Amino acid sequence: MPETSLGELARLFLRLGATAFGGPAAHVAMMEEEVVRRRGWLTPERFLDLLGAANLIPGPNSTELAIHIGYERRKWAGLVVAGLSFLVPAVLVTGLIARAYVTYGKLPAAGWLLYGVKPAILGVVVQAIVSLAPKAAPDLRLRLLGLAAVLLAAIGVNELVVLFGAGVVSLLLAQSPGTRGGTTLLALGPLLPAAALPAFPAAAGPTVLSLFLVFAKIGSVLFGSGYVLLAFLRADLVARLGWLTEAQLVDAVAAGQITPGPVFSSATFVGYLLLGPAGAAAATAGIFLPAFVFVALSGPLVPRLRRSPRAGAFLSGVNVASLALMVVVTGWLARSSLVDVPAVVVFLASSAVLVRFRPNATWVVLGGAAAGWLVHAVTR
Question: Cβ(33)–Cβ(128) under 8 Å?
Fold first, then answer.
């Protein structure tokens, strides 16, 4: 296959970053559609391996997946270009929203946008799950493991417990009697976070350096969704440091959710709120820098893990659990997205178009936004 240019990587991930609404599951689905089915840059199996590796390290999973893909195509330069390109649209839009918030004291209205985009994104995610499921669970053992992971995630078991638990169970089931798995688990050590990172000191009031350090700590230890991010931000910025009020924190997370790309862009909003453009830059760099570091450390290990039978078995368990988490998140997304008949119509139309014509997912998302605007214009 011809080498992917850095310009092509930048164009793809800038476009994805500008249209990837709906959270990590939706982002993963759009990346799978582009790099597996449309461009053939990765096989489904390789894509699942990278998704599993991204789920094993802290930070924004979809951003880390973009960084992994960049590394696969152009090594270190691709790692930087793909990651930054995916982040830039979300950071810029969130920064503009923060500026409007500081000026006018409230968030811009965007309900009509999400109303139409969420059902459309749901169709994209369902299509990706259907496409990846045969590769993630090719045999009965992995299918049963995936079903168990869905049930555990649905009842609220921590995502990291589900992922590592599935990996360990898959490893144990794949081992022959008398085989030791300890060396395999030790080999996976570089994929694990530094769980005991020190609490970085912070000044009494926010400075550019203290803001960077606080967000770097959060980005280095945070697993899970934007709701987990909310808990971390509240503990540090509201309870411990008193830099934000509860209301400001909720608005910050909302700003990250109404913009495309990772919800971690809420850090940009908080930084701008506290110290203007310099604070936005410091907070953004702090929360996303660990993702680049962790992928740089773990990315080269993924092929070696897959070549090892025991480590490969562990990774297969993690892969099917990652897909199970997508299934559960899709259920939650459906409950909050399919709120009335027009939303259901958008979902069904999007799904039908995706299955029948397989267009670029970006057009489906833009179509959902247009439908949301039309419903808003007719009913207001």
Answer: yes
Q: Where are the domains of the chain?
A: 6-191+296-379, 208-290
The region, left, alpha or beta by phi > 0 then psi within -120 to 50, assigned to residue 41 is alpha
pLDDT at 225 over 60: no
CA atoms of 277 and 121, how far apart (whole Å) = 31
Considering only CA atoms, which of 137, 159, 126 is closest in space to residue 319? 137
The residues, ordered by sequence, that sit 6+ positions from 150 with a Cβ below 8 Å of its Cβ are: 324, 327, 328
The answer on pLDDT for 164 being more than 90 is no
How many other C-beta atoms are found inside a 10 Å radius of the C-beta of residue 332? 13
pLDDT in tens, 334-376: 887 788 898 899 999 988 888 788 776 778 878 888 888 888 8
What whole-number distance in Å separates Cα of residue 177 and Cα of residue 160?
Answer: 28
CB-based burial label for 301 (10 Å; 0-12, 13-18, 19+): middle
Please give the DSSP secondary-structure letter assigned to residue 108.
P
| pLDDT tens digits, one per residue of 49-69 | 898 888 778 788 889 999 999
**Closest to 84 in 3D by CA, of 215, 261, 237:** 261
